[in-house]
């Protein structure tokens, strides 16, 4: 499965209108892809809306990106006076495609910027570690970027931030996480917390 991660950034007081305009765009009949989730930022840069869409192949993803680039009001960003960023990703092949559902009140987005040649070792490390790690808590997706700097972005749902801290600490203590050799492949990382919007397919 292939994914597009779109982030709209505006003034925090404009977020309700940003969400409304973006959802209206996603429901237009000519727009392709599967809308999977929408979240607002809880820490880091505030006033941001992030949306995840899934695509069956790179051709569908490229066509939709081309449509957005030539659209006069993509995601309602012109009306909302937003800055827009669109990123293309491919899901790790051994992971199942993202399916909508209720999984957590908070979603953590983690991005790792990879060293040159670091993608394949990262994928293999995750492939070996996930069978045991997935018993502790669910993973929404891990995916590698098809554009921009080499990087991976993974999304984890949590019922609470206390749950997140406890499960991560226990996984580290048990030697289940991080994936063995995985941290050797990246040189920078970020983690931000996002909250699903009222109509987000992923909750």
From TrEMBL:
Belongs to the NipSnap family. This is NIPSNAP family protein. InterPro entries: Dimeric_a/b-barrel, NIPSNAP, NipSnap_domain. It comes from the Bacteria. Residues 3-71, 107-200 form the NIPSNAP domain. Pfam families: NIPSNAP.
């Amino acid at each position: 499965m292939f994914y597009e991660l779109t982030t709209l950034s505006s003034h925090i007081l404009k977020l309700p209108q940003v969400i409304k305009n973006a959802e209206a765009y996603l429901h237009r009949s000519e727009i392709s892809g599967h809308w999977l989730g929408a979240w607002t930022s809880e820490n880091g840069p505030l006033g941001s809306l992030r949306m995840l869409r899934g695509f069956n192949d790179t051709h569908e993803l490229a066509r939709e990106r081309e449509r957005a680039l030539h659209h006069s009001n993509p995601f309602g960003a012109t009306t909302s006076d937003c800055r827009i960023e669109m990123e293309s990703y491919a899901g790790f092949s051994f992971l199942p495609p993202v399916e909508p559902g209720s999984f957590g009140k908070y979603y953590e987005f983690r991005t790792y910027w990879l060293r040159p040649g670091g993608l394949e070792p990262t994928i293999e490390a995750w492939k070996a570690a996930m069978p045991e790690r997935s018993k502790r808590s669910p993973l929404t997706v891990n995916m590698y970027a098809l554009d921009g700097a080499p990087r991976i972005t993974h999304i984890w749902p949590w019922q609470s931030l206390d749950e997140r801290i406890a499960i991560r600490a226990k996984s580290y203590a048990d030697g289940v996480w991080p994936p063995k050799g995985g941290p050797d492949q990246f040189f920078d990382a970020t983690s931000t917390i996002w909250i699903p919007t009222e109509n987000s397919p992923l909750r």
